[in-house]
């Protein structure tokens, strides 16, 4: 697989993953095609050496692993972590708003989204819908309206002359999107629209009543290669589906000899404190069922986690927002993220291991440290390191417009990180 094929497959994954639920569904299908067996959390597990498995929780977090031929107690486990969620707008439980003949939807901001770029976009909706069938059984369905069905028009500058100087966005009043023209008497309830959508996607679905849902708005503009020389990729949800895709490809393509694991958690953008988030017990419970609670401390002592989450590339219009010696460039390699206050979990040993692998493959890498007078973000790396006690490296592909509705990264950096992570998963020892 070369860089062009890698990006083509990435674009396909991004297009088919408008929500964490769809991303996990897509990853599960890829894993099954590669010979991974699905496990059920509620069932007893009988794991064998040299086999490959995966398990999901809440349909939005996935853990895939290969038991390998080597004993995890003596060889450890090579782990990769990422997250499936991205900042977006989520539809509220009672969303119907009727004003001036327009049917609008109440939405809530999920995560630290940049709100201005959501205006004047062709938006669709997707997510998970829970319903009862005609036999009064609870069911779930994934839905994706696919085409543009809502939009958030900007207010004309003639009605806000200071828009380019002082306009701010009130998330309660300024961003409810327009769904259609209809008054309250003639409008179809939103839950009925969802029931109709389920039936449209699956004519055999037995939907008696929609009870609840978790729906996100998303931009329908597809991923693209941009730049006169095709230097960049642009898409929604690069943070952090790009890392999920890289980790997935590395695990699927790696030699299955060594014990290895990929975890892609939901809810990173809102703090990771959930049953399926990185602060939750999911990964710990999977490891206990794989290697046993008694042996887990010894396994962890020989293991390592590489937490992959995109980094801030140095923007040419805002170069002063970076430390002068630590401004990552697009297409100059993945970025080792360092913070001495432990907002990132990287230490000298984990960074050195990555650099050693990267140099052995003659591939580039960079370092990022936030300006000393600015706050530093974080990711699942410190949370996983704190929960498991596993040595951890935080790394990511540099990008622009993080948390915007459409983000941009270098066209070559993702493939570089994939190559290094694949080699990492095949190491016999990581000491």
From TrEMBL:
<protein>
    <recommendedName>
        <fullName>M18 family aminopeptidase</fullName>
        <ecNumber>3.4.11.-</ecNumber>
    </recommendedName>
</protein>
<keyword id="KW-0482">Metalloprotease</keyword>
<dbReference type="Pfam" id="PF02127">
    <property type="entry name" value="Peptidase_M18"/>
</dbReference>
<dbReference type="InterPro" id="IPR023358">
    <property type="entry name" value="Peptidase_M18_dom2"/>
</dbReference>
<keyword id="KW-0378">Hydrolase</keyword>
<dbReference type="InterPro" id="IPR001948">
    <property type="entry name" value="Peptidase_M18"/>
</dbReference>
<keyword id="KW-0862">Zinc</keyword>
<keyword id="KW-0479">Metal-binding</keyword>
<keyword id="KW-0645">Protease</keyword>
<comment type="similarity">
    <text>Belongs to the peptidase M18 family.</text>
</comment>
<dbReference type="GO" id="GO:0004177">
    <property type="term" value="F:aminopeptidase activity"/>
</dbReference>
<keyword id="KW-0031">Aminopeptidase</keyword>
């Amino acid at each position: 697989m070369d860089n062009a094929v890698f990006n083509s497959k990435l674009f396909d994954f991004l297009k088919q993953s408008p929500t964490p639920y769809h991303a996990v569904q897509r990853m599960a299908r890829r894993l099954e095609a590669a010979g991974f067996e699905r496990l059920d959390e509620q069932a007893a597990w009988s794991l064998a050496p040299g086999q490959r498995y995966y398990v999901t929780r809440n349909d939005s977090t996935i853990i895939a692993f290969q038991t390998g031929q080597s004993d995890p107690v003596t060889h450890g486990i090579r782990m990769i972590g990422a997250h499936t969620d991205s900042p977006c707008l989520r539809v509220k439980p009672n969303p119907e708003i009727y004003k001036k003949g327009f049917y609008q939807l109440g939405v809530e901001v999920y995560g630290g989204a940049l709100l201005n770029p959501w205006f004047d976009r062709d938006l669709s909706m997707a997510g998970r819908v829970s319903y009862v069938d005609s036999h009064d059984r609870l069911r779930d369905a994934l839905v994706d309206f696919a085409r543009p069905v809502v939009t958030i028009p900007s207010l004309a500058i003639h009605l806000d002359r200071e828009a380019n100087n002082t306009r701010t966005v009130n998330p309660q009043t300024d961003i409810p999107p327009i769904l259609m023209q209809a008054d309250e008497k003639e409008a179809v309830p939103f839950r009925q629209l969802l029931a109709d959508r389920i039936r449209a996607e699956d004519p055999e679905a037995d939907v008696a009543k929609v009870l609840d849902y978790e729906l996100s708005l998303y931009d329908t503009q597809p991923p693209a290669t941009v730049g006169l020389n095709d230097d960049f990729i642009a898409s929604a949800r690069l943070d952090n589906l790009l890392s999920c895709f890289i980790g997935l490809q590395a695990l699927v393509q790696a030699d299955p000899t060594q014990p290895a694991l990929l975890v892609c958690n939901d809810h990173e953008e809102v703090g990771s404190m959930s049953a399926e988030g990185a602060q939750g017990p999911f990964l710990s419970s999977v490891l206990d069922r794989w290697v046993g609670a008694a042996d887990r401390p010894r396994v962890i002592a020989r293991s390592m986690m590489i937490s992959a989450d995109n980094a801030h590339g140095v923007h040419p219009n805002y170069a002063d927002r970076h430390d002068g010696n630590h401004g990552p460039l697009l297409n100059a390699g993945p970025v080792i993220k360092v913070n001495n206050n432990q907002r990132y979990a990287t230490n000298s040993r984990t960074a050195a291991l990555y650099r050693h692998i990267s140099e052995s493959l003659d591939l580039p890498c960079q370092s990022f440290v936030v300006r000393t007078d600015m706050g530093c973000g974080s990711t699942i790396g410190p949370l996983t390191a704190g929960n498991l006690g596993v040595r951890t490296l935080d790394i990511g592909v540099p990008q622009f417009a993080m948390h915007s509705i459409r983000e941009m990264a270098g066209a070559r950096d993702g493939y570089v990180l994939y190559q290094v992570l694949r080699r990492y998963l095949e190491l016999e020892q990581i000491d």
